[in-house]
Structures are given as structure tokens and as C-alpha cells.
Amino acid sequence: MTMRSIAAATALSLCSCLYTASAGAETPAAEMPRAPGAQITTLTAPGYFSEPSVAVNPGNPQQVVVAYQVPTHIAYSTDAGATWLHAKNVAPADFKVNGDVSVTYDSKGHAFVCYIAFNKLGTFNYWGHATNKNGIYLRRSLDGGKTWEASPVTVSEQQQQPGVPMEDKPYVVADTSHGPYAGNLYIAWTRWGLKDSRMVFTRSTDDGKSWTTPVEIDQHPGLPRDDNGALEGFDGAVGADSTLYAVWSEGDDIQFTISRDGGKSFSRVRNILHTAPIMFAVQDFQRANGFPQIAVDPRSGDHKHAHLYVTWSDYRNGDIDVFCARSENGGRTWSEPVRVNDDPVHDGSDQFYQWLTVDPVNGAVSILFYDRRGDQENRKTFVTLARSVDGGKSFHNYAWSVKPFVANDQEFMGDYSGIASYNNRVYGAWTEDATPTGGRPAAKATAAKIAPDRGQDKAKERAPDQAKEQAQDKSGEKKKEEPTARNHTIIRVGVAEFPAGR
């Protein structure tokens, strides 16, 4: 999935400061209402950044973490997203490349970031061919995201020898319920081999300190190429009784399975939703997909009554739309898909790269996605927040960003975004191209003031073009600074605050 993206970023410079983009007078796409209480913070200078993940601490919702690549970075907030700081020493030093990040909190308030790491890619898109040592690793933060343990935990590692598979796109899920397996952590991912792709899974029952031997949870392997027909895009959610619900894509179908014994065994995998092909082309993007996400309303009860939601995007209507289906009986039956974006059908505007969250306090369903409505050329991209307060039966669309970006197919935008919510406060994290025209450098940004971190030096306030830092390889030798980064992508985090019941 993101192998080629993170490999190309090994030597690019990194940024440790936060920036607020210069204000613009543009109107939200197609005159959509602005998301209530919207604020947006730019976390990076332009560079090779993508694929953010965000999580809120359910025990202390003032704590929020955002992870992104390349390499693995963590930004954290202790005031519900009003200010952000970067954690130090998160990326591993013993691999050339790392990324494909995901983050979560457990019921103790510990934060976890999961990532892949490798030294060499296999054959383009045929990742299981000619690869070498690689693996999946986890870092823990026992203070909610501020500091991270020095040594990562090995989740799964492939040694350097002929024919080893490639581990890709892991996603970490925590059981924060009051069920019998509360505290468990789960990770599943795609394992690329020479002959096929497999969905493999592991669990931890000791706060992420150790992990079980990975097991295959798919019904049958998928194709071995990173394209339609492979098994990709795992996501999971845990219900009130500790039931783990999981989805991923295979070809034109979304597959579903559950575990009711803390990840020891799984139900027979079945296709629950038929889609158009899950990998597709989007103008100005190197690649794009509609991989699914799943979320559960923890207030809805046990596995017999759990309200589940699955989102994805596809082009059944010609242009790409975002869809949501719901189940009110723990996944036994599913509704017809609801179109999440509310622009006219067949208007030629693409909506894609969605991510899903259900508020554990009130059950509101929120979905973030890229949105190109209002642009006849289908290139200018906004970020939209869709929200449902009627159990996913209908969605109201809100403009989260007010200034569009235009991507460049020579720059990697990642394979996914992130969203989380708690008690009507919603957090989104996404990638933008910092060159609004898709080719020319953007105007200088204005540096944002950052609250100083206790015990750490105050971050310098610099404009992005002044924030270049020389990267170091694992030997500590400085590499030559590139005059212009090959990528100009940035990570932004948005906050929205909804009134109760809206």
C-alpha cells in the first residue's frame, strides 16, 4: 500500500514545529456551512508527510495524539486540541524506513503507536517479491502521548532471508469497554507473499508488552499484488461486551468477521457489502482507494444488539462517492448504503479518502473525507465533515477546511486520513499539498505560537521554508540538505465542537 511512499522519503528533512497557514478569504466548498467551532492547525512544514491517525483518551479527553509518517511522528495535545507539541524520539533508529502509522488509547490512558519498518522494498506493487528484513512494531506512552518508551515492542518480524513476506498497513485497536477482555490490544495487517496476500492478526493481553504469534483470519488468501483482488485495509472496533468486529476489502467486496473471546478465535469470514472496485484512479493523486472502516456505538449493547457502521468510497455513480451502511444486530444484517456526501448525484465531483468515528458518549456518527464539489475541473480539494445524529440514516455535511488544495500526482498524498470524537468534540487529521496550484511553492506561512512543554525547550517559531533540518542516517552522519523537497505535503489537524443533539 504505502511502501513506495515511505521508501522515497528516507532522506528528506523533518520538522518539529507547528504552523498556522496564512488566512484566506475563500468560501467553503459549494457554500456548505462551516463545521461548528472549527479550528485547524498545521502540524508540519512541507515535506514527505502523509497518512495521519488520531485518537482521544477516553479517560481524559483533554489528551489527544496524532501520528503521521515519514518517518513515524507523534504530535500531542493536553488541552483538547487547542495547542499541539511534538513528542521526541518516536521513530526507530535501526531501520532505514518506517511508517504506516496508527494510534490508540487503552482504558488506562496509555497511548500506543503501531508502525511498519523495513530496509528495502520488494518489486514495485509486488511487495512480497525480493524484499528483506521487515516487521511491525509498537511504542508505548504511559503518560498519554507526551513521552514514549525508548525501545519498541516487536509485534511481528521477518528476518533477512530469501522469500520472506512483507508486512503492510497494520492497524491497532484497543478494548476500552467494561467487558471481559477490557484492556486487550489487537493488530491486524496484510502479509504480502510471493503467491498471495493474507490477513493476519495478533493480540496482547499485557498492555502491549508482548504479542501472540500472528494467525491468519481470512477465509482464503487474496491476490499477491497491491491492487484490486488483494486482502487490504483492515479496521476493527470493540463493542460494549468486548466483541471485536473487523472488516477489510477483497476485490469488490467488504469482508467481515467477529471475535467474542478476546481475539482467540473468529467467526467465519463473510462478504457483507458489495462495492465497485476498491482501488481506483483520482485526478492528481498517485493512487487512491476506498478501503472500509468500521465503528460501533458502545451504548447499543452486546453483540446481539450492537449498532455497527461501515464506510467506504467507490465509483458506482461514475464520480466517486462516500457511503455508509449500518447494522442494528451486531452485523448479522446490513442496511442499504447511504450516500454520505450530499452534493447532486452524477455531478462529476469526487469525494474520497473517508474515515469514520462514532462518539462513545452520544453515538453521533462523523465521517471525514476529501471533497471536490463546486469545481468543474474536479481538482480543487476541500476537507468535509459529515455528521449523523439519527443512527446513520442521513448525514449533514460541513466544510472543515475553507481553502482548497490541488494535489500533484508526482507527490504522494498517502492512503488514508484519520478522525476521532468524544462528547461532541471531533478531531480530524489529513494530508494536504502545500502548493495550492499543485506545482508552485505556496506562500510563506505564519508561524503559530506554541505553548512551551514542561521540561522541554520551547519550540522555535519559524516559517516552513526556514524549518529545514538535516536528516541523519543511523550512523549519525549528516546527509546533504536537499535544496527543494521532492514532496510538499503537510499534515493538518482540525477540531469541531457540536452543540448537544446536533
UniProtKB/TrEMBL annotation:
Protein keywords: Signal
GO (cellular component) term, any one: membrane
Keyword DNA repair: no
UniProt GO MF annotations: exo-alpha-sialidase activity
Superkingdom of origin organism: Bacteria
Ranges in a coiled coil: none
Enzyme Commission number(s): 3.2.1.18
Record InterPro entries: Sialidase_fam, Sialidase_sf
EC class name: hydrolase
Catalytic activity: Hydrolysis of alpha-(2->3)-, alpha-(2->6)-, alpha-(2->8)- glycosidic linkages of terminal sialic acid residues in oligosaccharides, glycoproteins, glycolipids, colominic acid and synthetic substrates
Keyword match Cytoplasm: no
Stretches with biased composition (Basic and acidic residues): 451-485
GO biological process assignments: ganglioside catabolic process; oligosaccharide catabolic process
Signal peptide: 1-25
Region (Disordered): 447-502
Family under the similarity heading: Belongs to the glycosyl hydrolase 33 family.
Name of the protein in its database record: exo-alpha-sialidase
Organism: Acidipila rosea
